[in-house]
Write a structure and sequence with these properties.
InterPro entries: Thiol:disulfide_interchange, Thioredoxin-like_fold, Thioredoxin-like_sf, Thioredoxin_CS, Thioredoxin_domain. It holds the Pfam family Thioredoxin_2. This is DsbA family protein. The chain is α+β, with helices and mostly antiparallel strands. It has a domain of 114 residues: 3-Layer(aba) Sandwich (Glutaredoxin). Helices cover 56% and strands 10% of the residues. It has a 5-stranded mixed β-sheet. A hairpin with a 2-residue loop joins strand 4 and strand 5. Helix 1 runs antiparallel to helix 2 and helix 1 packs parallel to helix 3. The longest helix is centred in the first third of the chain and has 24 residues.
C-alpha cells in the first residue's frame, strides 16, 4: 500500500508539472501515453520514486522562483535605458537576450536576432551583458561588456558599429582587439572603465543567477525562457507566435 501511495504521489507530481506550461489546455494524447509509461516504469522500479519526486519538487520550486524574479525585475530588464538594445524604439515585443561578446554561441545568435528585428519592425532586442568568460582583460582597465555599455551610454549613435565589430571577432577579446575596435570606430576615449557601469553589470549577473541560468546565450521571449543558441528557422516561429499572442 505504501508503495502504491508513493507511485500515485509521483505520478500526480508529473501531471502537475506537465500542466504548468499551458494551464488552459488539456494534455495531448502523447503526453497521456507518456504518463502511462511513467507509471508503469515506477511500478516496476519503485526505487526511482523518491528521487523523481525530489527532482520534480526542485523543478517546481525553480519555476516559482523564476516567476517571482521575472516580476520583480521586469521593469529593470524591459525598460532600462542603461541596457544596450537594437530594433524599434516602440516595440510590441521585446526580446531580452543574456549575452557575452566572448561566447561563440552568442556570436552566432546575434545576426539571427538582428535579422528578426529587420523583418519584424515591432520587435526590439535588449542585450543584458553577462561577461562570464571575461571579467578582466590583461593590460587594459576594461572588458568587452564594459566598453560596449560605455559606448551605448556616451555615443548611442555609434553603438551598433562597435557592437558588430565586437561580435565578429573570432575567439575571446584581448587588449589588442578592443583597442583595434576602438580605433576603427573612433571610440578610444570610451575604452576607460567607468565606475558607473559596474552596478549595471553586477545587477545583470544577479538576475541571471536568480533566474537559474548557467550559460549564455539565454533569451526571454514572451512567457518563455530559451537557453542556448537557436537558428533562425527555429526562432522565427517562436517570435511570430509571441507577436500573435500580443495582437
Amino acid at each position: 500500500m505504501k508503495k502504491l501511495s508513493l507511485i500515485a504521489a509521483a505520478v500526480s507530481a508529473v501531471l502537475f508539472v506537465a500542466a504548468i506550461p499551458a494551464k488552459a489546455a488539456p494534455l495531448t494524447s502523447d503526453q497521456q501515453d507518456n504518463l502511462v509509461k511513467i507509471e508503469s516504469i515506477l511500478e516496476q522500479k519503485p526505487e526511482l520514486i523518491d528521487g523523481l519526486l525530489t527532482s520534480l519538487n526542485m523543478y517546481i520550486d525553480q519555476e516559482n522562483k523564476t516567476a517571482v524574479t521575472l516580476k520583480k525585475y521586469h521593469d529593470w530588464l524591459y525598460n532600462n535605458p542603461d541596457l544596450a538594445a537594437f530594433g524599434t524604439d516602440n516595440p510590441k515585443l521585446t526580446i531580452v537576450n543574456f549575452t557575452d561578446f566572448n561566447c561563440p554561441y552568442c556570436k552566432r545568435l546575434d545576426p539571427v536576432l538582428q535579422r528578426l528585428t529587420e523583418e519584424n519592425p515591432e520587435v526590439r532586442v535588449v542585450n543584458v551583458f553577462v561577461p562570464l568568460q571575461q571579467r578582466e582583460v590583461v593590460g587594459i582597465d576594461t572588458n568587452s561588456a564594459q566598453y560596449a555599455l560605455n559606448v551605448w551610454k556616451n555615443d548611442p549613435d555609434g553603438y551598433m558599429k562597435v557592437h558588430d565589430y565586437l561580435i565578429r571577432k573570432n575567439g575571446r577579446h584581448d587588449k589588442s582587439s578592443l583597442e583595434r575596435v576602438a580605433q576603427v570606430t573612433k571610440t578610444q576615449m570610451l575604452l576607460d572603465a567607468s565606475n558607473t557601469l559596474k552596478p549595471t553589470i553586477d545587477k545583470s549577473y544577479q538576475i541571471f543567477s536568480e533566474l537559474g541560468l548557467n550559460g549564455t546565450p539565454a533569451m526571454l521571449i514572451g512567457d518563455q525562457i530559451l537557453p542556448g543558441y537557436l537558428p533562425y528557422d527555429q526562432l522565427k516561429p517562436i517570435v511570430e507566435e509571441a507577436l500573435k499572442k500580443l495582437s
